[in-house]
Specification:
By secondary structure, the protein is of the alpha/beta class. The protein has three domains: 112 residues, Phosphohistidine domain (Glucose Oxidase, domain 1, 3-Layer(bba) Sandwich), CATH 3.50.30; 113 residues, PtsI, HPr-binding domain (Enzyme I, Chain A, domain 2), CATH 1.10.274.10; 321 residues, TIM Barrel (Alpha-Beta Barrel), CATH 3.20.20. It has 22 helices and 17 strands. The strands form two sheets. Strands 1, 2, 3, 4, 5, 6, 7, 8 and 9 form a nine-stranded mixed β-sheet that branches. It is globular. 46% of the residues are buried. The chain binds phosphoenolpyruvate and magnesium ion. The site of magnesium ion has 5 residues, from α16.
Length: 588
């Protein structure tokens, strides 16, 4: 018997909300393994289909064995010989057939259940040798599924019933194309808090938990699961008590959200009447609606690389202008900070080939973002022209990402000046005083913030990257997620430095990384002197509530205390406690 025990997994919450629903498991090759049943009359045909798939899978695996024998030696080829033997193992085949005959399972569902049960049993054994064998079983499962599903594996976009997607990982573009009507939540084994997959979950407002570590062995398509995107919990096969508890949590969360909506028209002002500007981060023009619904003061970060989603050619100047004007039309007179392309690393890196980027060993340290634009001036200038043209129609500001040296910033400004001249010659209107800002997201930029401040009208601190570069901890890698902490003293010192440089040179400083949307850091950021935050739209009400619940005097004290602490853990515990006292509903 395959048992359905309740299993609780903990990961990183990246988009809030609680969802209870049937799982749709997507394996690492993108196969969906549905919980599918066949008609009693079709059972024998299904067993025949299984037999064919097993034969083809064994044939494929033997071919791989021969290729490996020839290439690196029979010792390695033997691994595949063992795979082929397993595929044909009469005991295994009998177990799968039993599920088809006895429980009317479709062949792929039966294969997946049996293989996962065996893999889990092996993983449970202490010996590393046995647990490594579970990886072999996954390989075998994939080989059989490939043959069973083949071209019938449908993309995630064509779902017919609401599901909770469970996957090893989803790329940012896969996530961006999920349909929130059908994908009610998702949970992944990989991923970090500020990976672009996580950011996309926030954008689409799909409750999500990432960085859960391995769990796909423990679940089959159709199993009931609970995703708690508030606390970063995934529950497989909940028992009745747990399901009831989460039904209540879900209702409570909805009513908390409704209360927050009431804040929309109140200013983000501290108890001692200091105004904090609260802006929204957007990726798509349609999201302006989300910002305005939540009372944003404008858009503090418009990530434009999403214009490159699902296409093989670069967007034209007209397409850029069109997107920017769509934003302005909805936003009215409020400001929008358009960030120039930040392509590369984990953002649509697949498109990079066309811009002369070789396969890089360290893409996060490579030719990404403004570095890539400076090597592809046509690309850069097209976007600058569009931003300038849009600036004739609203409060547009331009911002450069990933600046790491003063010269780089000057180069960007020089190109902008050239583009302005061209537009001038062509008689095309634009705002000659277009405010120019830079992101501070590389430690070198934070360290020379006083120099950079002389050259721009505003800073926006990109903590997502600043943290990863400061602590040398990949923002997408859950294995180092404990190092990746906004509360780390090294990060706090850099933040303080940037705020001071901004104050000394009288320019605006804002924070637009995910840290600014995390309620537990709001008091600290105000205490460090920040008066502008740009956050994922759904975080605006919560952050506003905290701003309105604290005074600058209190926040200053909290920041001073935090700056004295020795470790990120101490800082985080302290801030969590402070936030819990101010607003228990938020921290829980
Ligand atoms: C950041 O790095 O904090 C940031 C806002 O930019 P992105 O997340 O798009 O890299
Ligand atoms: Mg960044």
């Amino acid at each position: 018997m395959l048992s359905n025990h309740m299993d609780i997994k903990r990961g990183i919450p990246v988009a809030p909300g609680v969802v209870i629903g049937p799982a749709l498991v997507v394996d690492t090759e993108g196969y969906r393994i549905p919980q599918k049943f066949v008609d009693r009359k079709r059972r024998e045909a299904e067993i025949e289909r299984l037999g064919q798939a097993l034969k083809s899978a064994a044939r494929e695996v033997r071919a791989t064995q021969e290729a490996i024998n020839a290439k690196i030696g029979e010792k390695y080829g033997a691994i595949f010989a063992a795979h082929a033997l397993l595929i044909e193992d009469p005991e295994l085949v009998r177990e799968i057939e039993e599920l088809i005959r006895g429980k009317n399972h479709a062949a792929e569902y039966a294969v997946s259940r049996v293989m996962r049960r065996h893999a889990k049993a092996l993983e449970g054994l202490d010996s590393g040798q046995f647990s490594a064998r579970s990886a072999d079983l996954f390989d075998i499962e994939k080989a059989i599924l490939r043959n069973l599903l083949g071209s019938r594996s449908e993309p995630l976009q064509h779902l017919k019933h609401p599901v909770v997607v469970l996957a090893h990982d989803l790329s940012p573009s896969e996530t961006a194309t999920l349909d929130p009507q059908m994908v009610h939540a998702f949970a992944t084994e990989a991923g970090g808090r500020t990976s672009h997959t996580a950011i996309m979950a926030g954008v689409l407002e799909i409750p999500a938990v990432v960085g859960l570590g391995r769990f796909l062995t423990d679940v089959s398509g159709g199993d009931e699961v609970i995703v708690d995107g508030n606390r970063g919990v995934l529950i497989l096969n909940p028992d009745d008590e747990t399901r009831e508890h989460y039904e209540k949590v879900r209702k409570r969360f909805r009513s908390f959200e409704k209360k927050l909506v009431a804040l929309r028209d109140l200013p983000a002002e501290t108890k001692d009447r200091v105004r904090v500007v609260l802006m929204g981060n957007i990726e798509f023009p349609q999201e302006i609606k989300h910002c305005l619904e939540r009372g944003a003061d404008g858009v503090g970060l418009y990530r434009t690389e999403f214009l490159y989603l699902n296409r093989t050619t670069d967007p034209t100047e007209a397409e850029h202008v069109d997107a920017y004007l769509t934003v302005l039309r909805t936003l009215g007179p409020k400001p929008v900070v358009i960030r120039t392309l930040d392509l590369g690393a984990d953002k649509f890196a697949s498109a990079q080939g066309a811009w002369g980027v070789a396969d890089e060993r360290n893409p996060f340290l490579g030719l990404r973002s403004v570095r890539l634009c400076l090597r592809n001036l046509a690309l850069f200038k097209t976007q600058m022209r569009a931003i300038l043209r849009a600036s004739a129609f609203g409060d547009v500001r331009i911002m450069f990402p990933m600046v790491s040296t003063l010269l780089e910033l000057r180069q960007c400004k020089m190109i902008l000046a050239e583009v302005k001249e061209d537009l001038e010659d062509e008689g095309i209107p634009f705002n000659r005083k277009l405010p120019v800002g830079t992101m501070i997201e590389v430690p070198s930029a934070a360290l020379i913030a006083d120099q950079l401040a002389r050259e721009v009208s505003f800073f926006s601190i990109g903590t997502n990257d600043l943290i990863q570069y400061t602590l040398a901890a990949d923002r997408t890698n859950e294995a180092v997620s404990s190092l990746y902490s906004p509360g780390d003293p090294a990060v706090l010192r850099l933040l303080e430095m940037v705020v001071r440089a901004g104050r000394d040179h009288n320019i605006e400083v804002s924070v637009c990384g995910e840290m600014s949307g995390e309620p537990m850091y709001t008091v600290l950021l105000i205490g460090l002197g920040l008066r502008q935050l740009s956050v994922t739209p759904h975080n605006i009400p919560e952050i506003k509530k905290i701003v309105r619940s604290v005074s600058v005097t209190e926040a200053d004290k909290v920041a001073r205390e935090a700056m004295e602490m020795e470790t990120g853990r101490d800082v985080n515990n302290y801030l969590r406690e402070i936030t819990r006292r101010i607003l228990p509903e938020v921290v829980g």
